[in-house]
Design goal:
Shape: globular
CATH topology: Rossmann fold
Distance between the termini: 39 Å
CATH superfamily: HUPs
Strand order of the largest sheet: 3-2-1-4-5-6
Number of domains: 1
CATH class: Alpha Beta
Largest sheet: 6 strands, parallel
Number of helices: 10
Number of strands: 6
Radius of gyration: 17 Å
Structural class: alpha/beta
CATH architecture: 3-Layer(aba) Sandwich
Length: about 210
């Protein structure tokens, strides 16, 4: 099978995440997209992740429900250690040797990839899909991809995505200021955020 990996804190998951997954699946003929919430990421302090892990997992579960090509992957959430992408992908390659993995990253991550822990090991396990917004000049990204492909003998490809200006941080900001987020997240996620009173100022103070 051809599997796309979408990792992130998903704090919260939003429509932009889902559209990115759908575009990756269609453009690269992937069988499944694994949405993988990160329980203990090395690049973010735990205090910067506002909602608890169980809430983030539930929001992802609700967001992808009904889409047979989307799968909730709990490997990193269930580990107690700090999660590094190369270790996760080496594990998947060992457990699922017949699968071909496509690791989806954003444009910013493409330029930070060399500073990740053991990028040379990560790049041996998967094809990297570097997402960029439709209409953006890709010359700089193409040059970086050529550089990384040659340095690491990697397979990095561009993933053209729709120009959707949504971020989890903007959703959290809107919630704190009392603005609507209904157009940014699936209805099932919105109802869960409301019922659990997530992303309120009092929750942020207690985490």
């Amino acid at each position: 099978m051809k599997i796309g990996i979408m990792g992130g804190t998903f704090d919260p998951i939003h429509k932009g995440h889902l559209m990115l997954g759908e575009y990756a699946r269609e453009l690269f003929a992937l069988d499944e997209i694994w949405f993988m919430p990160n329980g203990n990421p090395p690049h973010k302090l735990n205090e910067n992740i506002e909602s608890q892990t169980n809430h983030r997992v539930e929001m992802v579960k609700r967001a992808i429900e009904g889409n047979a090509g989307f799968v909730l992957q709990l490997y990193e959430v269930n580990r107690k250690e700090v999660n590094y992408s190369y270790k996760t992908m080496e594990h998947f390659k060992e457990v699922y040797p017949d699968n071909k993995f496509y690791f989806i990253i954003g444009a910013d991550s493409l330029f930070a990839l060399e500073r990740w822990v053991h990028p040379e090991r990560l790049l041996k396990t998967c094809i990297i899909l570097a997402a960029y917004r439709d209409g953006k000049d890709t010359k700089e990204m193409e040059a970086q991809i050529q550089y990384l492909n040659e340095k690491f003998d990697a397979d990095i490809r561009l993933l053209n995505t729709p120009n959707v200006d949504i971020s989890s941080s903007e959703i959290r900001r809107r919630m704190k200021s009392g603005e609507s987020i209904e157009d940014l997240v699936p209805e099932s996620v919105y109802s869960y955020i409301q019922s659990e009173q997530l992303f309120k100022d009092d929750e942020n103070e207690s985490v």
